[in-house]
Amino acid sequence: MSQKTITRPAWQDPTSENEILAKIKEFDDANIHYFESKELGFPGTPPLPICQQVYSDYVGAHANNIGMHTNPRPDTSEYGFEGSQQAEREVIGMCADLMDASPDEVGGYISPGGTEANIVGCWIGRNRSKGRTAIVGSFLTHYSIVKAADLLGIGAKPQSDGSGLHLVGTDSNGHINLEHLWRVLLDLARLGLRHFIVIGNAGTTMLGSVDDIPGMCEVISRLEHEYPTAVVHLHVDAAFGGFVIPFLEKYKSRRIGFSNPRVDSVTVDLHKMGQTPYGSGVIMARREQFKNVFTLAPYVRGGDSTLCGSRGGVIAFSCWAAMKFLGRTGYEKEALERVRDANTTRQMLTEAGLSVFENDTNIVAVRGEFPLSKKLMDKVFITHAQEDFPADMSNPAGREFQTVWKVVVMPHMDIDTTIKAFLDARNA
Ligand SMILES: Cc1ncc(COP(=O)(O)O)c(C=O)c1O
Asked: May I ask the CATH class of domain 328-427?
């Protein structure tokens, strides 16, 4: 039998520290650096300096926050890391507060990001009942829900028996069409489905638009009234908007979180507008709901209701530091300033003749091709242009498309410089 030849990468022998550091510098030089760049479209911003300090001071301690630590009895958590478990418990408590729940009402954990948080939200919902399940949300729902639908065996597309993922239309500014949602749920219930996961978006990735969550709760209550055996799980994806929407006047009377009794689980990302290092999403659910995803772990005291297993305790420390450093009022100030900057951005782009969506949050989305060269889009004013965005947003299954691109106004951005540079480049 002939031996397979494998190409071995250059790591067989140790590399000197100097060489390593030089190479890492080279890797890093190939990245953008938020403060120096003119990038337009990332929901990323450097972690607060206090987070960076805590991270570098404690990464070496290598605490493992495996398991979930918001159990009513904290002594059921894994041995050895009580400190970072307590920090995480307090982070979840502060996030619960942001979503209008007191810490004893909801459980949760710091996940690697919004994707896992959304998958777990759907996993909890899927395990609440047996039988055919449908996930329903607007077409602006983040693609992590597509992954969830696939992984959970629900189906990433509508299935012939009614199960699967169903994406409904929105109004012209990206808010779920409640009538369309009702019609789809009703049609599926008439097909015999009794198990639904409904996704409410509180800050869509592309438009930053905020669904009418109380309105969605009313639709769900109506369905439950007509079909009393229906089990409906409402998951709110506030990965982007979680640290913005709660502070905006417009949403003080239309809250997105647990003050709606029909909201079951919520995703919030700290590593976006929470200004913490990557690896910090948060999933929260009403306490009893986590029983649906509990796994008895042979070697972890208290078992595990998370998806990912081992998790860095240093992330809990960094998140705790950020949240305590800014406090609720600090995040409020940040959110209001960024939305004000987004409104100015919208005005500047509109005056320059671009067709801009109305913005609910600090994402400003623009209809049409990105008006500069592809090279400038990819290398300088980095942003995402979605070419298959439905032309008619009320009918996402339609066959006509438009291009949409976006500006995400993050804390490090100086819009006077960045938007002006973009407009100057456009006029050049
Ligand atoms: C609305 C929304 N949900 C979920 C995610 C996924 O988050 P992550 O990239 O942290 O997994 C994103 C990412 O941009 C998002 O915008």
From this structure: alpha beta
